[in-house]
Design a protein that fits this description.
The structure holds two protein chains of two kinds.
Chain A: H1 2-7, E1 10-19, E2 22-32, E3 35-41, H2 47-54, E4 62-67, E5 70-71, E6 82-85, H3 97-106, H4 112-125, H5 141-153, E7 159-163, H6 171-186, E8 190-195, H7 198-204, E9 207-212, E10 215-221, H8 222-228, E11 237-243, H9 246-254, E12 259-266, E13 269-274, H10 277-291, E14 295-300, H11 305-316
Parallel strand pairs in A: 3-8, 3-9, 6-7, 7-8
Antiparallel strand pairs in A: 1-2, 1-4, 4-5, 9-10, 11-13, 11-14, 12-13
Chain B: H1 28-44, H2 47-55, H3 58-69, H4 76-101, H5 103-110, H6 114-118, H7 124-155, H8 164-194, H9 198-210, H10 225-236, H11 242-251, H12 259-283
Helix pairs in contact in B: 1-7, 3-7, 4-7, 4-8, 7-8, 7-12, 8-9, 8-10, 8-12, 10-12
Chain lengths: 317, 289
């Protein structure tokens, strides 16, 4: 727990936000550390409101948001360390991609030459070098998304808020952008990424924050979340295991308290049902070693974000 | 990398604000300069700019008519004074101020690009100031260009009209048109920040408050830009003409305020408009969706 405390970058402390009589988010309590965290929610769940509150775009009606221990609302200097990729398709149409990045980098405090170098680098990382000196007004939807991403990362921020960054991207651009965000996550950046497309988030991170009806329903690794939720106790996770001797492994696994049922599908394949998936994955190598069985691979049959999301949303409605 | 699972409502005991100073914002002059330059480029590429350039060409047509029809009946000085006090100060200044002033920050909000500026380590008031300066320069530049071309049309091949008195009146009028534009644009910019339907309020201000109230023979006229501008115009323009006398009667204006007081009032209005606009912009929350 202490190591997590050291890594906490963003803290929402009992944050609520309402618009007149309408509640956007309510009682949000969360901490986000380095790496990629996916903010997931259905349309109207409060995802965008929470995102704006966390990024300092709107003030919370109640509670507070701290970034590196400071209130973003009263410490605008913190934006030196923050990158924000907004969801609306809005750009400075009269500028070229390079000019737009230069302008925003100059507003970050960089000199003209430094801003130019950083703009070139960001455009290159976003695969926009060829279009750098074309007017933004002529960019395709995918390029527009990329330039938004480029401006969010160009000043090398420690924290990045990416609001639906893949909207309207073609598959190639989407893949390139996902790779880039994964790289940034590996570099130690704290990235909060909102999306309503589960597979997008699933492809990049296993740490999610799930919001429904304006409340954070769960936050953490999705297998941990799954274990955590009491209402999923009776819905075990199914894992298909390819191994050298399915029967031998099944005998050893069935004794484990993490395993609810084992079904041998073939001589080299079995399906395990577990209600404590994270512990199961931890113990599986030890069990296989004791049973002298080689594990060739395994895959979860229903432990994807989609199924988790369905469970969670159904559980709150 | 994994963040612990936390359900909503669970207490977070480690929420402690840092005692270290956060990074500072950028210096104002640097931000104002950058925003000013970018905004100026944007203004000059707007369709509104082209439309208003055409509107500002109306006096040129009138000047050509004057050259053709009545240069002897109305001297250059009389014609120009009346052109400024009626067309420029009663109409063009406010049309240009409304068209450029209201969108000062409203256009960035409507275009949703304001988010890019709000997520930089800069003060919001510097954004407002930078954009307002660009707007004032563009609006003033259009009217100044119109006045310069008017002058050129009046004196081209007609150099005998270029007397000391005429040049003095010309400089005075150009300066006052620019002063009125700068002040009115700043006030319109405040409407753009303060109201969700700024055009309605702007129109009421320009054609109700400024043009109607400024002519009421009461103390209220002291709170209009137009009154003080006309006061300075009439004080400085030492023009004796029946036409101008008729205008004085028509406007029922008794210029009891000294020139320096009008200059001070205009400066105060400008400063107040910039301060109020900047304050409101800094405090106002824009929910961009």
């Amino acid at each position: 727990m202490s190591s997590t405390a050291m890594e906490t970058v963003l803290v929402a402390d009992d944050v609520s936000r309402w618009y007149g009589q309408v509640i956007g988010v309510q009682g949000v309590q969360c901490e986000v550390g380095p790496g990629i965290t996916g903010l997931l929610g259905l349309n109207g769940a409060g995802k965008s409101t929470l995102f704006k509150v966390l990024a300092g775009q709107i003030a919370p009606s109640k509670g507070r948001v701290l970034v590196f221990g400071h209130d973003l609302g009263s410490s605008r200097g913190l934006y030196h360390r923050i990158g924000f990729c907004p969801e609306p398709d809005a750009l400075y149409e009269f500028m070229t991609g390079h000019e737009m990045l230069m302008y925003l980098l100059r507003l970050q405090g960089f000199s003209k030459s430094e801003a130019s170098a950083r703009a070139d680098k960001a455009l290159s990382r976003c695969h926009l070098t060829d279009a750098a000196h074309r007017r933004v007004a002529g960019y395709s939807k995918g390029m527009r998304q990329k330039i938004k991403l480029a401006q969010a990362m160009a000043h090398d921020p420690d924290v990045m808020f990416l609001d639906e960054p893949f909207n309207g991207m073609d598959p190639v651009s989407r893949h390139e952008s996902m790779e880039l965000i994964r790289e940034l996550g590996k570099e130690g950046k704290t990235i909060l990424l909102s999306s309503h497309l589960l597979h997008e988030v699933e492809a990049m991170t296993s740490t999610i924050m799930l919001i429904t009806n304006g409340r954070i329903r769960a936050h953490g690794h999705f297998t941990e979340i799954r274990d955590h939720l009491e209402n999923l106790e009776n819905e075990p996770l199914r894992i298909e295991v390819d191994c050298s001797n399915a029967r031998e492994l099944a005998v050893n696994l069935i004794a484990s308290e993490d395993v609810q049922a084992v079904q041998v599908e073939a001589d080299d394949r079995l399906i395990v049902s577990s209600t404590r998936s994270s512990r199961f994955f931890k113990h599986l190598p030890h069990v296989a070693l004791e049973a002298e069985v080689d594990i060739r691979g395994y895959r979860t049959l229903d432990d994807d974000l989609k199924s988790l999301f369905a469970y969670l949303v159904e559980g709150t409605q | 990398m994994t963040t612990p699972v936390r359900a909503s409502g669970e207490s977070t005991s480690r929420v402690v604000a840092s005692t270290q100073r956060p990074p500072s914002v950028l210096p104002s002059w640097s931000v104002v300069s950058l925003v000013f330059r970018a905004s100026l480029t944007e203004m000059l590429r707007r369709r509104t700019f082209v439309f208003l350039a055409l509107v500002c060409a109306i006096p040129l047509g009138l000047t050509l008519l004057w050259r053709m029809l009545a240069p002897e009946q109305f001297g250059a000085e009389v014609y120009f004074t009346n052109l400024v006090s009626t067309l420029y100060l009663q109409l063009l200044v406010y049309v240009v101020a409304l068209a450029f002033g209201i969108p000062t920050v409203h256009s960035e909000v409507q275009g949703r690009t304001i988010t890019y500026l709000f997520t930089r380590p800069i003060r919001k008031i510097d954004i407002f100031t930078g954009r307002l300066l660009a707007v004032q320069l563009t609006a003033g530049g259009l009217l100044a260009a119109s006045l310069v071309v008017c002058f050129a049309l009046m004196v081209a091949g007609n150099f005998e009209v270029v007397t000391f008195e005429f040049v003095k009146a010309y400089v005075n009028h150009v300066f006052l048109v620019l002063a009125a534009t700068v002040c009115a644009t700043a006030v319109c910019a405040v409407f753009g920040v303060a109201f969700s339907r700024p055009v309605v309020w702007g129109m009421l201000y320009a054609f109700g408050w400024e043009l109607a109230v400024s002519k009421f023979p009461s103390q209220l006229q002291n709170y209009t830009i137009n009154f003080h501008i006309r006061n300075l115009l009439l004080d400085d323009a030492d023009v004796e003409s029946k036409l101008l006398d008729a205008f004085r009667v028509l406007l029922t204006q008794e210029a009891e305020v000294p020139g320096w007081a009008s200059a001070f009032a205009l400066t105060a209005m400008l400063v107040a408009a910039v301060a109020v606009g900047g304050f409101l912009f800094s405090r106002k929350e824009y929910v961009i969706s």
